[in-house]
Amino acid sequence: MKMRLFPLLAACALSGALCDIHAEPVYKCTADGKTTYADRPCADGRGRALPPPPVGIRPDGAESVATRDARTLLELEKLRIARERDAARSERADARQARAAAAQRKTCARVALRRKWAEEDVARTHGRARAAAERRLSRARAAMAVECPA
Looking at the domain assignment, is residue 52 inside a domain? Predict the structure, then answer.
């Protein structure tokens, strides 16, 4: 990831440096008390060419297109990484919920099976054993109500 970004950043930095080397001269013209700046010599010939700024030094607020593009690229990359991280978290949370739901279904099925067996025992038993079977059925129904309320 970082290796793919490095050549792009290097190209952006070099293009900004090349723009500084080949900068066009700026001419300062004064006519009728007004000062203007142009990329061509003054019409009356009395203007003077300003020296280019030193290489690597930029006035405040002036940045090259390459620098802005590189900054924008980094910001977009950070946003993409954050989106991917959020999506991965969401997927993990969904998987956790699915596992919990599956465990709940399994528990409900187990409790329902015990209740079914207790009902069968009550139907088949007579005498003293019937009271014990009814007690097991009552407990199985209570467990079903607690474990599987719906």
Answer: yes
